[in-house]
């Protein structure tokens, strides 16, 4: 069969129909797009922020400082030992226990010391008896001297009378010689009585000296009792215990170490190159790892000798007396008594329901409920479970720098010393934002647009922070970051 001309079959007709279909589909798509009425997306407008403080950055003179690490130590650390040889019979405390001045810590066998004390008391009694005998001997000798002087006076008067009578030849020579001999004998007796008085007074002085020696021996024997019952010399805490019950205590052998918790100092090795900038009495900022703000100490001592190995000198910084902690403990104790008195007024009024307890700040504990173990006794002075806090429950380190730090011997801290001045760029701390490990500020451009810029920070100083790089003097920055401030924001006036 021969195909007819104009037939719709074949490749040419197929391609034609496909082209017409594609053109129709394109027309429909354009028509639908035009009927939708949607506009092409446009860039979002920059946020507009008002009430943003702006300041111009400038260079400022700041102190040039250096920091050196140091170690906290107690200003008073007492190593206690016994002066007598004996067996330890009791140890009253352990490491970490708070102690009071005069509190007995260790007891040593006192039998030998007690025997010596009784012997000293007996010796003193003998010495006092000797003094009484010597005083009586002095009184007798003085009475004899007085009688001898009376006899001599009578003999003298008689001698004068017989002398006149002998001159008139009214008495014989023998009678006169007898009267003269009695006068000489009376004079000699007076001299003998005077020497007896002196001897009695010497024996009295000797007895007095023996009495004083006996008193000193008794005082020495009594002082040994202080080494039999070793007491704490200060209010503080036990930091070391070197003895147990049954061990022998000997003179010079350490038994306990007690530290005074009211005064601490920081000992800092300062290099020789910086030692010339340190002066006695200078205030020194001290930085503890746990403290957000530094504590101001004062240089109390500079050891003049250098360590030949490190070429450093030891500088001691007084951290001050922390008597406030003792007052806080007394205040807490008084508040415990106040709460107890309020509870005694009426049991029914002392305990409230859970809802009322929550409204009043959680000061009461509902009867019958158990503590979850995480709550701590505070204003009521009770421990978890309702046990009343005794004096021993108080912290042995009551002298807080802040709620999270206390003074402890051996603690680490850094002291900052001023060695001159230098210029630096400072910005307020509240002008700095943090993004993970990165820090930056918002720089204000001439058209009022804000741009975030990363900077590298240095030391903090009185609420400001040093900018080491990323910012130049004369640039304007946002001095306080406000909500809604982002990179690219447009600042507007109120």
TrEMBL record:
Region annotation (Disordered) ranges: 324-395
Keyword Transmembrane helix: no
Keywords for this protein: Coiled coil, Transport
Coiled coil (residue ranges): 117-151, 183-217
GO molecular function: efflux transmembrane transporter activity
Domain Multidrug resistance protein MdtA-like alpha-helical hairpin: 139-201
Residue span, Multidrug resistance protein MdtA-like barrel-sandwich hybrid domain: 81-254
Domain CusB-like beta-barrel: 266-323
One GO location term (cellular component): efflux pump complex
Pfam families: Beta-barrel_RND_2, BSH_RND, HH_MFP_RND, RND-MFP_C
Stretches with biased composition (Basic and acidic residues): 339-372
Residue ranges occupied by any Multidrug resistance protein MdtA-like C-terminal permuted SH3 domain in the UniProt entry: 424-478
Protein name: Barrel-sandwich domain of CusB or HlyD membrane-fusion
Organism expressing this protein natively: Desulfacinum infernum DSM 9756
């Amino acid at each position: 069969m021969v195909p007819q001309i104009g037939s719709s079959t074949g490749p040419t007709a197929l391609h034609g129909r496909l082209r017409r279909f594609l053109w129709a589909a394109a027309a429909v798509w354009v028509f639908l797009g035009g009927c939708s009425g949607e506009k092409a997306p446009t860039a979002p407008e920059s946020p507009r922020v008002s009430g943003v403080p702006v300041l111009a950055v400038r260079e400022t003179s700041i102190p040039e400082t250096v920091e050196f690490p140091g170690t906290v130590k107690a200003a008073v650390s007492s190593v206690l030992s016994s002066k007598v040889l004996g067996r330890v019979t009791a140890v009253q405390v352990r490491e970490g226990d708070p102690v009071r001045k005069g509190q007995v810590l260790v007891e040593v066998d006192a039998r030998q010391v007690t025997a010596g004390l009784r012997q000293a008391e007996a010796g003193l009694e003998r010495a006092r008896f000797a003094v009484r005998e010597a005083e009586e001997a002095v009184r007798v000798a003085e009475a004899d001297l007085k009688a001898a002087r009376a006899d001599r006076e009578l003999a003298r008067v008689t001698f004068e009378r017989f002398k006149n009578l002998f001159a008139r030849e009214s008495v014989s020579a023998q009678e006169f010689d007898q009267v003269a001999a009695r006068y000489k004998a009376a004079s000699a007796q007076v001299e003998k009585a005077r020497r007896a008085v002196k001897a009695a007074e010497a024996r009295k002085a000797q007895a007095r000296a023996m009495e004083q020696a006996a008193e000193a021996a008794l005082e020495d024997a009594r002082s040994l009792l202080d080494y039999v019952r070793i007491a704490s010399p200060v209010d503080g805490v036990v930091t070391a215990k070197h003895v147990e019950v049954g061990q022998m205590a000997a003179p010079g052998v350490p038994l306990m170490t007690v530290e005074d918790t009211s005064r601490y100092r920081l000992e800092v090795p300062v290099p020789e190159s910086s030692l010339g900038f340190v002066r006695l009495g200078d205030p020194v900022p001290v930085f503890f790892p746990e403290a957000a703000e530094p504590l101001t100490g004062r240089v109390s001592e500079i050891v003049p000798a250098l360590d030949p190995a490190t070429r450093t000198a030891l500088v001691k910084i007084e951290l001050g007396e922390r008597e406030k902690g003792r007052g806080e403990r007394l205040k807490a104790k008084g508040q415990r008594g106040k709460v107890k008195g309020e509870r005694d007024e009426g049991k029914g009024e002392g305990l409230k329901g859970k809802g009322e307890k929550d409204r009043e700040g959680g000061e009461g504990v509902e009867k019958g409920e158990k503590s979850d173990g995480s709550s701590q006794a505070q204003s009521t002075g009770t421990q978890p479970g309702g046990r009343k806090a005794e004096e021993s429950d108080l912290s042995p380190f009551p002298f807080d720098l802040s709620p999270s730090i206390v003074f402890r011997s051996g603690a680490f801290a850094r002291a900052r010393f001023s060695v001159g001045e230098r210029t630096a760029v400072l910005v307020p701390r509240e002008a700095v934002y943090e993004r993970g490990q990165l820090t930056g500020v918002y720089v204000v451009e001439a058209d009022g647009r804000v741009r975030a810029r990363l900077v590298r920070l240095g030391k903090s100083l009185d609420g400001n922070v040093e900018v080491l790089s990323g910012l130049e003097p004369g640039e304007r920055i946002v001095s306080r970051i406000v909500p809604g401030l982002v990179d690219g924001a447009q600042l507007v006036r109120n």
